[in-house]
Write a structure and sequence with these properties.
The complex is a heterodimer of chains A (496) and B (324).
Chain A (H helix, E strand, L loop, with lengths): L2 H12 L2 H19 L5 H12 L4 H26 L8 H12 L3 H35 L3 H13 L1 H4 L4 H15 L2 E2 L6 E2 L13 H20 L11 H5 L3 H6 L1 H16 L5 H15 L12 H24 L5 H12 L8 H4 L1 H22 L2 H6 L6 H20 L2 H19 L5 H23 L6 H4 L1 H25 L2
Antiparallel strand pairs in A: 1-2
Chain B lengths: L1 H15 L14 E5 L6 H15 L7 E5 L6 H9 L6 E4 L3 H8 L11 E9 L1 E6 L7 H10 L5 E4 L5 H13 L4 E4 L3 H9 L5 E4 L1 H9 L3 E7 L25 E7 L5 H16 L1 H10 L2 E5 L1 H21 L7
Parallel strand pairs in B: 1-2, 1-3, 6-7, 6-8
Antiparallel strand pairs in B: 3-10, 4-10, 4-11, 5-8, 5-9
Classes of the chains: A mainly alpha (496), B alpha/beta (324).
């Protein structure tokens, strides 16, 4: 079937009143779930799964997919307003988003996040529609050595995330890598750094560390310095609640960068939206004319990661729909749902169920528009939160953080760890250690170690496997450039 | 305390009434259905299906509420169930991970022995596949190739103690061939590694394999099942292919906390026995190509003991440290 015909058929399916309704239900639930830290799309979809047995499968997948991409819109809200990452992919958004809020541009940041999400979300669907099968085949040529190279490129970003001191950034990153190594080792089943606690066998959840270091650490730091009293200027008037033309113009490249990087990373089964948002932020900073301003509240710093984590959704659906390969927790449960509804996910599914595939694609175009319309009017409402007095705001941040962490695992042990990481975040602020490299190390450490060991098992211990494969060699070359260019610049500055 | 003595009296009364039919107990509030995986995991999907099937067939007067107790390599859910000692309103899905963690983890303060097995529901068969353009037509071809180039061929799979790991341990021991076992945390990554040509072989669920075989991207060499699956009628079992090894199946079942009164146990046993006879359940088994393998509490307990002993032997031979 050609694309025009398919798309027409898809819109015919997606525009029926029932499917339109379920699409709205999905994106609405997604927004709510995204705004609340902790509870994520996989848990929500699992809870709703039994309900869908009585539904038409096409309507059901339209709704569940709506939750999936809708959550990515909401995720930025608490990151920007409260420095509490709403979901793991929104950690990077905290860096410039919260800084914008502190400058009184909370509304603008939320607006940019929504627009970036809309553009990238739509680009993701276009990619899914146009190039899914060939791209899925290309993604298969990626294996452990390529993933390792990709993680190395990610870690090289530390030079971009570093503040004044590269040494401190690298130290923070090493702590992140160490935390990532905790728990059961996949290959030998040895327990590492569990100190006899069964709670640590699966390692430490990323959300606990991110919320602790960012949100709790931030609040503790502000409470001490008492700068909190004039911390958050209240935006006045509609003009100040929305992004200005100038800000939007600054984001032109970021919209594109986020869309493309997010989609490509999403297609690879071994990565995820958190990595995509870090990569996109890093690239944005690397090509920026004013990289030194990143972290102080530049709009591109919000647009790039928010775009990346939205188009990642379209990318992640590529291997799932074309090959039956799940690339993330959410696509895994969508796949299980398809089987329960009587579909057979695999290489032939799209061909044999065109109405399902094209209906889903068309509904995602509609869903992204719905989300934009839904989210823009919410911005002034959410921005009002910042009008509350500091003692209310801080209590709110503590409350949301604790509830968010507890809702992930239902374990008090995690809440105590949250407190511990809050103190770590506070100490890091006091000693001027940047928090982002720690999170970067934590996100990449696990997959990087795994990919390296898998590669070496494949080559029987020969390190040459990392550079003898063309894709892996190219990515490692990029990593070297990322590391060397700033150094070269420094050398150039010293000797003009 | 009143609660406890009441249960004791009730248990006593039921033990005296012959036969110990499921008359005494009926759940009076929503039942906590504990699962060790997060949303979307194999047992989670199963539990949610069971909950909705039981509701649909009106087998229980209250709702079954799935609760995910993730973490600790399955130990969080195990410990939670043990804490619910004697609670008639808590059940959980069984996982063989509890057997391996009980054997391997010093951190485990409670073990599978602390739970009461309720029913075994199904066994999941599997098939051994290679990529469609691989030179191997039979499992023997693959094993012979592995003998000629020891350690060069690769299999993608899960972690130590998983079914695909066990299959590889037993086959290499049985034949003397050697090939690498590369662990991937997610099923998707294992399939991607095979389809991309980065590994040569894997053990996969029949449902997933079926679609790839139909599309011509994978070829099946043998099936890990006692008798041939209907969907793979032309494919030999391991034994038929000339490899007489007894592998460990993937088991789906249900457990209760320890110390549950006999009438409660009988009630739940009866609920699941009735569920297993429904058309809804049979259709589910068929769609997923699971083997109907219903066993009641006492038999299931014996099955778990045997499983644990075999696993202890296999782990020991592989040089994995067994702590208890």
């Amino acid at each position: 079937m050609d694309i025009t015909g398919g798309l027409l058929q898809g819109f015919a399916v997606a525009l029926t009143p029932a499917n339109l309704f379920w699409c709205f239900v999905g994106v609405f639930l997604g927004t709510v779930v995204g705004v609340m830290p902790g509870l994520g799309p996989p848990a929500t979809i699992a809870m709703l799964l039994p309900l869908t047995f009585q539904m038409n499968p096409t309507s059901a997948i339209i709704m569940l997919a709506g939750i999936y991409y809708g959550a990515k819109y909401g995720g930025s809200t608490t990151s920007i307003l409260l420095n509490v990452p709403g979901e793991s992919a929104s950690v990077v958004t905290c860096l410039d988003g919260f800084a914008m809020a502190r400058r009184g541009r909370a509304g603008a940041a939320l607006g940019i996040a929504a627009i970036a999400s809309f553009i990238a979300g739509t680009v993701g669907v276009v990619g899914l529609m146009l190039i899914a099968p060939p791209l899925a085949r290309f993604a298969l040529s990626f294996s452990s050595p390529e993933y390792f190279a990709l993680m190395v490129l990610g870690l090289a970003m530390v030079v971009l995330l570093a503040g004044r001191s590269l040494v401190k950034a690298v130290l923070a990153m090493l702590v992140g890598l160490w935390i990532a190594g905790m728990g059961i080792d996949l290959f030998t089943s040895t327990s590492r750094f569990t100190f006899g606690h069964s709670e640590l066998l699966d390692g430490i959840d990323f959300v606990v560390v991110a919320i602790g270091v960012f949100a709790i650490g931030e609040v503790l730091g502000n409470m001490e310095t008492r700068e909190g009293t004039q911390m958050l200027p209240v935006p006045k008037g509609l003009r100040n609640l929305l992004p200005s033309l100038e800000e939007l113009r600054a984001c032109r490249f970021a919209f594109l960068n986020g869309s493309v990087i997010g989609f490509l990373i999403g297609v690879l089964p071994g990565t995820g939206s958190t990595i995509a948002s870090f990569m996109s932020y890093g690239l944005e900073k690397a090509v920026s004319r004013h990289p030194e301003k990143f972290g102080t509240g530049v709009p591109e710093g919000v647009a790039a990661p928010e775009g990346a984590n939205n188009s990642e959704t379209g990318g992640a659906l590529v291997p799932m729909l074309t090959l039956g390969i799940p690339g993330s927790a959410t696509t895994a449960i969508l796949l299980a749902a398809l089987i329960l509804w009587g579909f057979k996910p695999g290489p032939l599914m799209i061909q044999e169920n065109p109405a399902l595939f094209w209906g889903l694609v068309a509904s995602m175009y509609i869903g992204n528009v719905l989300l934009l319309v839904l989210n823009i009017p919410l911005i002034p409402l959410f921005a009002q939160i910042l009008k509350s007095p500091v003692y209310v705001l801080y209590s709110l941040i503590f409350g949301i953080s604790i509830v968010g962490v507890y809702s992930v695992s239902g374990s008090l042990f995690d809440v105590w760890m949250l407190a511990g990481f809050g103190l770590l975040g506070y100490a890091m602020r006091k000693l001027d250690y940047p928090a982002a490299p720690l999170i970067l190390g934590l996100v990449l450490g696990d997959s990087m170690e795994r990919a390296l060991r898998q590669s070496l098992m494949m080559s029987q211990g020969d390190l040459a496997i990392l550079v003898s494969r063309p894709i892996s060699a190219v990515i490692l070359g990029l990593a070297a450039i990322v590391l060397l260019v700033p150094l070269a610049k420094k050398v150039g500055e010293v000797r003009p | 305390m009143i609660h406890w003595s009441l249960i004791a009296v009730l248990a006593f009364a039921v033990a005296w009434t012959e036969p110990a039919a499921a008359q005494g107990f009926k759940p009076s509030k929503p039942v906590d259905f504990v699962v060790h995986t997060g949303p979307g995991g194999g047992n989670d999907v199963l539990a949610r299906f069971i909950a909705s099937a039981i509701e649909k067939e009106k087998l229980v007067p209250v709702r079954l509420q799935v609760s995910n107790k993730t973490g600790g390599g399955g130990l969080t859910a195990l410990a939670y169930l043990v804490e619910k000692r004697g609670d008639p309103h808590t059940i959980g899905t069984f996982t063989s991970i509890w057997i391996t963690t009980s054997l391997m983890r010093e951190e485990a303060k409670v073990t599978i022995k602390d739970l009461t097995p309720l029913v075994r529901l199904a066994l999941e068969p599997a098939v051994i596949v290679v990529k469609n353009d691989a030179p191997y037509r039979t499992l023997k071809d693959f094993v012979d190739a592995a003998k000629q180039t020891p350690g060069q061929l690769k299999q993608s799979g899960g972690s130590i103690g998983s079914r695909d790991w066990v299959v590889r341990q037993l086959l290499t021991k049985h034949t003397g061939a050697q090939w690498a076992f590369i662990s991937f945390p997610g099923g998707g990554e294992r399939i991607a590694a095979l389809l991309g040509g980065h590994v040569q072989m894997m053990v996969i669920e029949p449902q997933e394999a079926g679609e790839h075989i139909r599309a011509g991207t994978m070829r099946v060499l043998a099936q890990i099942a006692d008798k041939r699956l209907p969907a793979f009628a032309s494919v030999p079992t391991l034994k038929e292919a000339g490899f007489d090894v007894r592998t460990l199946p993937v088991v789906r079942g249900v457990v209760t906390p320890p110390g549950v009164p006999p009438d409660v146990l009988a009630y739940w046993e009866d609920v699941f026995a009735r569920l297993a006879r429904t058309a809804t359940w049979k259709k589910y088994l068929e769609e997923n190509q699971f083997e109907d393998a219903f066993q009641r509490s006492a038999e299931f307990a014996k099955f778990i003991d045997r499983y644990a002993e075999e696993m202890r032997g296999i782990l020991g031979e592989a040089g994995v440290k067994v702590v208890r």
